[in-house]
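re: the backbone from monday

yeah here it is again, tokenized this time
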């Protein structure tokens, strides 16, 4: 009779013999379906994480895109020379002031789209023009042969007719001021016109004389009539002066010389501050937005940024801060953006460059559309510029979305305007449009690690040792209550913990910080003393207590120690800290005690991390085979030796995993650090001041960040950095855990 159980005798389609066991098709189907669901769920999780990562990277990539400068159109000015011009914010119209064929001033308006002329006037009569210039943001200026300085206010009015926008170039009444040159020829000048009619001007005459003019306009509060007054003064200046520029308010005048000197007058002072740029002729000057930083171009193509820095004597002195990449020829023209710290530089070699001061970057370089560029004008929105040459002006489009970003600006020390030295600073917004963004991620990264370290210093010992005691020593009747209670602690909302830490815990810790110092000393001492006392009890008494019930005794010991610490806090503060801990800390170490600091975060976030580490560690201890424990005890080891030399090494991979999970929880925590630290991005490991973490910074900044802007994308970069830190730590932790498992697998 054939063996009915032999698979070789079975043929496809044959009926199953009676009595042969088989797995029901429904169970096989359920098993396959379960495997598919589990595998699909795992793949979906991996795909989701990768999708999030791809989305973050896509949002960050534009930070690395280069700037572009492309020619758009050419405006021919065949019958004008010595041209100065102003452009509207939509880059559709331009107003030009120049000298005609007969030498008289001509003011014209043009359409930039096709170069067509809109209108033309002679604003200064028939006087011959010597030179023209842009007078700040409000107008154009010229010096005429009769020894007068003229300022022509210009503006561009915007009107809307339905959905159509109309740009209307307007000119104000020309302002005339006598230079009083005494017949000396005018060699160079600079003028600044304010929107209210205020004028500041400096005119360099032959022979080393510098004439300073200031026009003030006062409006009568009763009649509304305007009265103007002109103040004139003269100061000596070098005869080889080559370039001049005013700040926006006309209070500070900068002058460069052929000998490489840089002079700064803080008006009305008549004595300038003199510095050397290195002996190379200064050929161009411009002030960046905010009028704090001065860009200096020289004859050898060098570009440097200067601004006033307060010295040890509390006197502000102009200081050379950074040197930007050298150009291919003498710098002939500079123009600063009105939106950021970007500026254009034209050189004698026919090159045009776009640079940024704060990020210390060369954003773009190429050939200038004007072979010989006499001056440059930036459009108000920073998206275009005009290069002015002989009898023409070339309009170029500028795409420069994220000039503030560079690796040194994000992770290195940067010398910001108004600071005394290079520093790591995060300050993304300010109160004015000329604010210099400070986007260093280093303080946020250090703050993240700072909060994590202080919280884990509290959480790891409490959680791991508590888990070890609960698993190996605590009586089972108490364990049934202790473990669920600790695990329920993990369900407490972090916003509640942050609220309690910031508003309730922080002021109480500030008042009783010496008590915490006493607890660090008293509690271990009392626990050791209590253990010795408990061990000294007669065996007849201890024998009646079940093993593990001593935990109740030690709860009373800890409570007594905490009570004693608070009772002795005032006396301890008077003896150890001369009456005040905060005053002693400041006078001795120079550190200030902020109420919301890293200690508060360590207590609050440590409380939040303890349940996670405790639960996983307790499972790791409990999963150690009882055969190992029994074998160790049978060989004569006591319970403590068994736990420390057998159970702890065997459970170490799980304990390490618990610590890493707690690390991830602490790194990603937002609400506790947001509410308990003061949220100040300070780069300092001092435990008594606040900090800001990457996650808290994202939560605070992202609602106000303009979509697609530099801050918006930098916050995504912060998120990627947080992801990378967590990923790297978890990967390293997994490698260590696997090594520990292999090491103790033979136990």
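seq for it, each position gets an aa:
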């Amino acid at each position: 009779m054939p063996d009915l159980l032999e698979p070789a005798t079975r043929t496809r389609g044959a009926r199953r013999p009676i009595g042969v066991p088989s797995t029901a098709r429904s169970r096989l189907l359920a098993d396959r379906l379960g495997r598919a669901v589990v595998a699909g769920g795992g793949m979906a999780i991996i795909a989701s994480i990768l999708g999030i990562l791809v989305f973050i990277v896509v949002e960050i990539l534009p930070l690395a895109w280069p700037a572009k400068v492309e020619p758009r159109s050419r405006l021919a000015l065949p019958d004008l020379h010595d041209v100065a011009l102003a452009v509207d914010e939509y880059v559709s119209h331009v107003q030009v002031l120049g000298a005609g064929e007969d030498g008289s001033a001509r003011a014209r308006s043009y359409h930039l789209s096709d170069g067509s002329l809109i209108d033309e006037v002679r604003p200064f009569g028939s006087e011959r023009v010597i030179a023209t210039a842009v007078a700040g943001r409000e107008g154009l200026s010229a010096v005429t042969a009769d020894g007068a300085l003229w300022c022509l206010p210009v503006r561009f009015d915007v009107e809307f007719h339905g959905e159509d926008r109309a740009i209307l170039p307007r000119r104000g009444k020309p302002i005339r001021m006598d230079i009083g040159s005494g017949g000396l020829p005018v060699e160079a000048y600079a003028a600044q016109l304010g929107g209210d009619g205020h004028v500041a001007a400096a005119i360099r005459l032959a022979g080393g004389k510098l004439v300073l003019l200031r026009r003030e306009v006062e409006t009568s509060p009763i009649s509304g009539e305007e009265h103007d007054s002109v103040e004139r003064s003269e100061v000596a200046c070098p005869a080889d002066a080559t370039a001049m520029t005013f700040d926006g308010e006309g209070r500070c005048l900068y002058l460069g010389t052929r000998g490489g000197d840089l002079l700064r007058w803080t008006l009305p002072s008549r004595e300038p501050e003199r510095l050397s740029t290195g002996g190379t002729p200064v050929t161009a000057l411009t002030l960046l937005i905010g009028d704090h930083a001065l860009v200096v171009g020289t004859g050898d193509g060098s570009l440097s940024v200067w601004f006033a820095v307060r010295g040890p004597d509390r006197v502000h002195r102009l200081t050379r801060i950074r040197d930007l990449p050298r150009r291919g020829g003498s710098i002939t023209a500079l123009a600063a953006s009105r939106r950021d710290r970007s500026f254009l530089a034209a050189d004698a070699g026919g090159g045009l460059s776009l640079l940024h001061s704060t990020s210390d970057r060369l954003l773009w370089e190429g050939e200038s559309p004007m072979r010989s560029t006499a001056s440059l004008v930036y459009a108000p929105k920073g998206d275009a510029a005009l290069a002015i040459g002989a009898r023409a002006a070339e309009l170029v489009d500028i795409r420069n979305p994220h000039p503030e970003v560079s690796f040194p600006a994000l992770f290195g020390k940067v010398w910001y305007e108004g600071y005394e030295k290079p520093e790591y600073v995060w300050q993304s917004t300010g109160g004015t449009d000329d604010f210099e963004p400070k986007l260093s991620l280093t303080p946020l990264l250090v703050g993240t690690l700072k909060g994590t370290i202080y919280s884990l210093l509290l959480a790891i010992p409490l959680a791991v040792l508590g888990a070890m005691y609960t698993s190996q020593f605590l009586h089972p009747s108490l364990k049934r209550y202790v473990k669920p209670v600790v695990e329920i602690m993990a369900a407490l909302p972090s916003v509640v913990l942050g609220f309690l830490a910031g508003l309730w815990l922080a002021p109480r810790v500030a008042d009783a910080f010496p008590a915490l110092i006493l607890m660090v000393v008293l509690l271990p001492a009392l626990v050791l003393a209590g253990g010795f006392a408990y061990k000294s009890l007669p065996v007849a008494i201890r024998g009646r207590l079940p093993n593990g019930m001593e935990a109740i005794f030690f709860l009373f010991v800890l409570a007594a120690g905490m009570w004693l610490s608070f009772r002795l806090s005032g006396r301890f503060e008077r003896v150890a800290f001369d009456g005040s801990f905060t005053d002693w800390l400041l006078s001795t170490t120079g550190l200030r005690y902020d109420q919301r600091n890293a200690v508060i975060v360590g207590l609050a976030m440590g409380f939040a991390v303890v349940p996670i580490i405790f639960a996983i560690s307790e499972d790791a201890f409990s999963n150690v085979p009882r055969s190992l424990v029994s074998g160790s005890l049978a060989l004569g080891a006591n319970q403590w030796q068994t736990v420390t030399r057998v159970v702890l090494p065997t459970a170490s991979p799980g304990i390490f995993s618990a610590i890493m999970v707690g690390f991830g929880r602490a790194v990603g925590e937002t609400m506790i650090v947001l509410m308990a630290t003061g949220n100040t991005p300070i780069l300092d490991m001092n435990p008594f001041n606040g900090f800001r973490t990457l996650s808290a910074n994202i939560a605070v900044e992202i609602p106000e960040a303009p979509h697609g802007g530099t801050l918006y994308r930098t916050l995504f970069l912060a998120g990627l950095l947080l992801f990378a830190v967590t990923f790297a730590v978890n990967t390293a932790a997994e490698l260590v855990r696997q090594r520990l498992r292999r090491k103790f697998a033979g136990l």
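Residues 80-237 form one domain. The CA atoms of residues 84 and 133 lie 5 Å apart.
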